[in-house]
## 1
Amino acid sequence: MTMSATQTAPTAVTFLEAIRQAMFEEMERDPAVVLLGEDVGVYGGAFKTSEGLLERFGWERVIDTPISESAIIGAACGMSYVGLRPICEMQFIDFIVCAFNQITNFVAKGHYLWNAPAPMVIRGPSGGGVHGGPFHSANPEMYFVHTPGLKVIYPSTPYDAKGLLKSAVRDNNPVLFFEHKFLYRRIKEELPTGDYTVPIGKAVVRREGRHLTILSYAAMMHTSLEAADALAKEGIEAEVIDLRTLLPLDEETILRSVKKTNKCLVVHEDTRTGGIAGEIAAILCEKAFGDLDGPLLRVTSLDTPVPYAPTLEEAFLPNAQKVFTAAKELARY
Amino acid sequence: MNKELTRKQHLDLYYYMRLTRAVEDTMTKLFRQNKIVGGLYSSLGQEAVSVATAYALEKKDWLAPMVRNIGALLVKGVPPRDVFMQHMAKYDSPTKGKDGTSHFGDLDNLHIVSPISMLGDLIPVMTGVAMGGRYLGQKIVTMTWIGDGGSSTGVFHEGLNFAAVQKAPFVLILENNLWAYSTPVKRQVPLQNLADRAKAYGISNYIVDGNDAVAVYSVAKEAVDRARAGDGPILIEAKTFRRLGHAQHDPAEYVPKEMRAYWEARDPILLYEKFLAAEKLLDAKGKKEIDDKIDALLATEREFAENSPMPPPAFADTGVYCTGDDCHKIRPNWVRPISEVTPPRSSVAPVWTVEGFGQGKSSSSGNAPIHFGDTPATEEATRDAQPLPRVPPKAGAKKLAKAAGAASKSAAGRKVRR
């Protein structure tokens, strides 16, 4: 991480406020940065992540759009071609698939095919656990991790959310930035008062341990830490790594840890089949096969849509108990 | 606004139409020699549309072609060799063999955005270029083309609606060539005129004979001038006909013979030659000069293209990402003072104002019901039109925001290491 000021702010801020600060500061820093999305202007965003931005930066830079995800993404891409750095908000990240073609065929392929960089950010609230039901709880990150040309970020802390969003705005590539809405108001953190960024593509060790490695990101990172505390009471020291960026994946940090602990558990809220755990399993088979003392295990959501009823959603989602149980099983090897 | 063409401009249109046809004829030969890697699409009979619309743009303006708009690319300044090499997948082509046909662009100099095969996607993209250019004070106009077929895609409508509500300086040419692959327009759209699509978005539209080069130029120029002046996006329907199949492999036997004969007699180049001769703008000598010029140019261009190598295999795994300033220095070209869009001058009241609200005026001149707030207001309220109250939050969002605000058992209060 880079930090131009290390003085800490007097009060801790929420994840949501960290997002707002990142956009505010980037728009303040660079007039090429604009924001467009549904209800981002007068209303300040469905979750208030853009509150106060219209007031300060005006109608030309904070653009309320019709309910047209393809138009939002397409227009942002066009704006990026004249040197602007648009941020697109998806009101709920579930709606990003309405612009799937625009993102995966047009935006993502431009640099490879015709040398056209598209410096733009697509961000929005994702994830379950808040009883949003099947169309307001998605974790669609893997559709896009499978798309060369995109970068995919999914942070777990206010500090990272702010620093990574700033990096995303300054990046010359299209960056997808997922904000787990379960974390929006639940976690707080004191942030540096000055400008700082967190590099894209770097995982971080949140907790050191020697018996096994738990790889996770977003809300499940907190679940993994909770499980690690419980494991420690039984004498199992888990190393918890927060992936932070899913594309490009930080193989170096993953391999360093797994070569030390020789066991790997992947925890993600995304559904099981085709989740990042599968990709990590392949990487470990290719590059750390001889270092593994046990199978790669994974704790994930069920291979179903996100159900609405709290009892069903609880059964659908991973939790600390499920992580604890899987880690205990893995530790036996 | 001057829509009258000079003699030179008349001859420019003729030259580019002839060049377009000659470039495509050359590619047909290359195709038959197996030198074209993929498909080959023809604009035979539609040259006037591509050429005369693009000719209405200024150098600083932007365009995005479709696969049948080779003529627009030539007018914008693309050399024929680039078109040949694109089709032949050569390493010296604009995309260095990574894509074919008209799928290439040039952000820095010619201001061309590359098309993709999914029709309609360029409409919001060119809307965005137009909005971005306006934001930077560049006074540019953007243009793209869509077919009768592409006008049924969702993104056509999303894009055009957004362009309309933003009053983007954008001109959309709807090239109605009567066929979407094998499906006639009557089986696609229940409209006599596709220009009527514009009515849904409250934007201006024109209908023009797409095989009359001067008529096409005339409406295109008027539309470009109006868009530049701030009239918002404009849709032009150019009625024309696709003389060949969807691509080289398609003999188009589904097209009625009488229909083909009708349009062959209305060939845009023949019609234009008659016009030029009648106006004494072109004689046999002048025509011969243009023939020779095109022949000589294309011989050189074709030779260059044929001699260009295929890309080396290792090139496949390069260029997915921009690596930063060393790769692309992305700097907007500001033509207006930046202070206009930065605080404090950019500061506004974050409220909607709704024209006519509280004035007792009907929301529509038609027979729409009078909306709440449009009912006759008291004298007091009429004095100051009140801004609308803040929009109430959407039910789903409100509920979720509330749920997310609840205390968490697992995450709250945990100190997480950076």
Note: Chain A touches chain B through 89 residues (CB under 8 Å).
## 2
Amino acid sequence: MGNAMSARVSRQDPWYVRWTLTSAALIVLILLVVVPVAAVFIQALADGIATYWNNLFNDGDTRHSILLTLAVAPTSVALNLIFGLAAAWAISRFRFTGRTALLTLIDTPFSISPVVAGLLFVLIFGQLGYLGPWLRDQGIHILFSPPGLVIATTFVTLPFIARELIPVMEAIGPDEELAAVSLGASGWQMFWNVTVPNIRWGLLYGIILCNARAMGEFGAVSVVSGHISGQTDTMPLWVEKAFQEFNLPGAFAVASVLTLLAVATLLLKVSIERRARPQLAEAKQMSESAGAE
Amino acid sequence: MSSNTNRRVLPGFRLSLSFTLVYLAVLVVIPLVGCFVKAGSLTWSEFRHAVWTERTRSAYELSFGASLTAAAISVALGLLIAWVLVRYEFPLKRLFDSLVDLPFALPTAVAGLVYSSLYAPNGWLGRFLVPLGIHLAYSRPAIVLVMVFIGFPFVVRAVEPVLESIDAELEEAAAVLGANRWQTFRRVLLPSLLPPLVTGFALSFARALGEYGSVVFVSGNMPMQTEIAPVLIVARLEEFKYAEATAIAVVLLLASFTLLVMINWLEKRSRRWDY
Amino acid sequence: MRLAAVITIGYLVVLPVIAWVFVFNQAAEQALLNVSYDPTRELWRDLNRAFREQYARETGKHISISQSHGGSSSQARAVIDGLEADVVSLALWTDTDALRRNGLLANDWIERLPNRSLPYSSTIVFVVRAGNPRNIRDWDDLLQPHVSVITPSPKTSGNGKLSLLAACGAALKRGGDEKAAFQYVAELYRHAPILDAGARGSATTFAQKKIGDVHLTWENEARLEVAESRGELDIVYPTWSIRAEPYVAVVDANVDRRGTRAAAESYLRFLYTDEGQRIIAAHYFRPANDAFRDRTILPDVKLFGIETVAKGWHEAQEKFFGDGGVFDRIYERP
């Protein structure tokens, strides 16, 4: 129906309107998105591929920053995945007082400036903060250390998976799960065999978005990291550092890796959407015809 | 949804809810409360002095002003792009459609790095624009530009589904009744596009308000002119004035929270307009 | 789908576990943490390498040294918040003293090392475009119309503070009274379009982005910048400038808790050895031992101390950079 409609409708606009609007939209997109992305790669490769490779893999600090990002980001995503599943289950399958408030609370990290987020954790874990002295006495290092990076990143990306799962689970509806339970399945059986397969595309989608954000997080991490070369610099922080050491090719080299990750994220997203759309549409139709809402 | 019965049938309510609450308490509620408590350690006049000086007022003005401007521009551009993507066919359309999501995925530091180097006087684009007097680096317009970059996808993604689901018959009816395209657009289509446009506006506004990583690279951080509120918070931190920093953070938090509530309300309202 | 599940689990579980093992492995070595200010990255890289060799020769043990760099005041704040520095090498007395006021340094820290804990000093100079097209010779030339001055923010950067103090002191030395000096400073900052957070940010703005006509910066930074610019930049020495004193100190509270005092003290004493002083001079800092200074690169300059502008660094901090101080007043609208 979509194609037929757009064919019909597009004939309704005179060709000059179509042309102008399309060119205008494309120019905007090119200026805003394509040119910057191209610039990252061109600048990174400005001194040749050998230097590019060198910049990325021959410097211990750069290697460590990549390693650190690959440790911190998936950990935050994994934590938020568990949270997202729990929250989505509670919110989409049950009604209780404070449900809307809970939804708003989950959304809060979205609207908090990353710097403020970092500040919040400094207030708690810093030496002048509430828990700092006690933690130090126990020998636990949170701030200026990888665990602090994980906490800051987890906070900033907290809503992503939950927000993705809640509408998906609401659209799909509890019917299959109810059926499974009434047929004698235990809670976990129902979860693994019914729920997870049903939401798999939304889940994947949420994980990918959460991961992209986690890898790129800068503001909050910058406040809590301490900028210790070779120890607490994630990739985005390293980009800033390289920039400040007059090492533009190095900065752009790491930036290009981050950009490649962003592009890969996009490609994954597109391929999931293509596969998920029929499933989601079907789920929507089912719940609509069942007279829901 | 008849989910009151679900509570007794579907398992895991207590487990999932308590885990959710504990997780949120530890990661979100306690830090927020800590922030408010710290800010509360100031007397009222100290608080006012921390959050209401000329410098902070400029920072709020800039943050809010730039975000509003950027959100408005994002609405215009976002509507344009969504319209073209939904209504028209052209080569590489899928590619451009995916590009819209790039700002979601790109780290803010990279965006800031590349924008500031593109529009600097010796940058690829800056070298043409600066002689024309257009300074898109280290200026207020630079901040707006980068905020548009991160904000316009919200508008596009909010408008697209609504645009797609508008019944073609409405437009045909309007045409039959003698309206030209522009009138059709204004009287028939725009009203139903208004809810997602407002949602998109609010989302990109909220996003722009909190943005730090990219703005810091392109803004120049001049007090009273290009210093956004989060930068001011960091400045207070550096001066070891934690309570004052939290005071400003509290102001920002309250503003963001209000926005958030409004956005959720708007989204709920706009669902009533779904055709 | 199966494949997607496997990849996802691999990514979320297997990869981070492996990565964390590597990360914690690295952190386990005995390391000294040196928290320093922005422009000293290259200096400490060489000093650390030389010290590690000497330490291995003398004790047979392997020691590793980590560096953290940022705006001087930002770094001080981080150390107070818990960044476990064994040694600090910050730009200004006030930043180091903030550590003392928070119980991290002993009260007599300044006397514990030779030359009042100053293995090197520096000053503030001008960097201009090659050929000096704006004909900038001295402080007054900075106020010419359409000259834009690049210097970092005094709120976060040691360089930023020193530029302002140098400007003020120079005005006083030229015979003005305090009021005239403050007016000069206010006028100067009206010529500054961008205030980066640190010295390196300003250097990038001036040298890479080619914004501004003159850059006020540390002498060592200026030399580095000019050297890297391949002929596009020149250095100009004003008649008067401030003696910048970047103190070094062992952070007592941290080294005692971590048991690294001996290593940290020997690390700082290394700075005063001949080799240390040689490396310092090679990086364009003025070594405590003047014999090592190459006068063609680091010429004699008339330098005034902080006493010219205030009764000490503490008063300078309050008077100029505190709330409502000279710097804040520049930006107040009339």
Note: Residues 121-244+301-330 of chain C form a domain with the D-Maltodextrin-Binding Protein; domain 2 fold (CATH 3.40.190.10).
## 3
Amino acid sequence: MTSTRPDPFIVRTATFEGPLDQLLRLAQDGQVDLAALPLGDIAAEYLARTRQDLDPDDVTETIWLLAALIELKARALLPQPPPAEEAAEDAGQLEELLEERLAAYRAFRDVATALRTLEAYQQRVFLRLPEQPDEPLLSGIALTDLWRAFQEVLARGKERGAEIPPEGITVAERMAAILALLAAHPQGVPFDALFPAEATRLEIVVTFLALLELVRLLRVRVVQEARFATIRIYARTPQEDRTGAEAG
Amino acid sequence: MTDPRIREAANAIECVLLVSGEPVRLDQLADAVQAPADVVAAAVALLRQEYAGRGLEVQEVAGGYQLGTRPAYADAVRRYLGAAGREPLSQAALETLAIVAYRQPITRPEIEALRGVRSEHILERLEERRLIKAVGRKPTVGRPILYGTTEAFLRYFGLRDLSDLPPLDALGGPPPAVAPAETGEAGSEER
């Protein structure tokens, strides 16, 4: 890094002599004939100078100044098209369209304000909550269907032959297991899923008892959408918070 | 002296409105109390008059009548219920709902053109809250879903019907300064 700033770059042309930033200021004020300004020469001169002494700050500034000058000159050299009428019309139409949209939007925003007032009013009106019909615990399913399903599972258990059951399996254990399974499957599980293929007869019986117990305790729902359809078991959702419902 | 038939019908209607918990149409009331339409209408008018100074009020909402608590006592009710109340609609949801309400049936692209932003999610939320519903499909390319408001929408804002909506500045001129004042209409004396 150079410790001292180099002497400012002095531009020397036929019409102007002075620092670059001053040239830009004059050009911006329209006091310089940009068309006659040899920007290429100035740039080349500066480039030559950087070969001897390169100061990053100075380079940055100079490039910026030169670029600004190039832009000004480019604009000055470009023919100024007379304001095209068609374009003006298009712009007018577009503006009109935007105005229309904005007006429509404003109108809706206004009625939204009015609706907000109505909402606030109505949210302070409480209605008696209609009696909620009891959630069906066994919907679309006859006891015989459940029995048949149980028989099927039992038959499956039978095929494995008699076995001395290991440690005793309790209904409470199986209830906990079913609830855990249902908790992991909020969308419910098919009846069969309660009975793993390797389940023993005792496990099957106890699990079935556990299921019945859970139905009795209103902890699960057993649903069969159609006759002979898969029976599905769901965790029973806790009663909805009745206090939360208001008018609307 | 009130016509005893009207008195009787008013008492019966009062009971029906209490257990209903939602708007009951005049014909439903006539059916329930087994009285001619004119008697039912008079009985409802009598009830409304009698409830004027009470904690409950008979509101005309969504094409029927409902018995609800007066907003002035909402705080007492909320304290008792221990409920904070329902979340009001977001501003964006309210604006979208307004567009659906006034321009129904309307498609999502049409709504988005008006709002200038994508509105799929908001429409889904409004549908979830049962404030709007699909009412058909527009017979154009892609057959986009047409949305309309529901009866729950009328109940949510306490409107008798769609003609009860606050007037929309159809010309879209400068926002009317009177808009908020006008809206007390569907409310009542408390406002």
Note: The longest helix of chain A spans residues 85-122.
